[in-house]
Amino acid sequence: MITSDIYNYVNILDKAADAATLRNELINNNIANVNTPHYKRKDINFESVLQAELAGGRSLYSSVKAANDDLTTLDPQVFTDNSSLSYRLDGNNVDINSEEAYLAENTIKYQALVDLMNQEFARYKTVLNSSS
């Protein structure tokens, strides 16, 4: 974590990228266990945690600044998906097609987050170069 207010957005993007990395690991684990009897898929709950942290009627800047005060509030919650019913006799609830779609979606999110962080740093670099 970078502790200057100028990096508040980067810190939030970094937490989101960490969550995307964790989700990638969980999805890959789900795919690896597609044939494991009684295995239940795992996932994370990050987007709703982030939404809750940034909500509250404040400006986006104020919300991001407040979230940076304690970034542990943005830690993703890993959960076991017991809600999706298994149509398989072995009790496994992993659908390989869904997991592959989740993996593709998550990869795109991660790449977008990294791109956003790179854009933020490019802005900082532009400002620093123009003030010289």
Explain the layout of strands and helices:
Layout: H1 8-32, E1 42-45, H2 47-54, H3 60-69, E2 77-80, H4 96-130
Antiparallel strand pairs: 1-2
Short description:
The chain is mainly alpha-helical and 132 residues long. It has 4 helices and 2 strands, in the order αβααβα.
Provide an overview of this structure:
This protein is mostly helical. The protein has one domain. The chain has helices at residues 8-32, 47-54, 60-69, 96-130, and strands spanning 42-45, 77-80. The protein has a two-stranded antiparallel ribbon with strand order 1-2. The longest helix is centred in the last third of the chain and has 35 residues, at 96-130. The relative contact order is 0.19. The mean pLDDT is 89.
Shape: elongated
Order of helices and strands: HEHHEH
C-alpha Rg, in Å? Answer: 18 Å
User: Helical percent range?
Assistant: 55-70%
End-to-end separation in angstroms reads 27 Å
Notable features of this structure?
single chain; 132 residues; mainly alpha; two-stranded antiparallel sheet; 4 helices; 2 strands
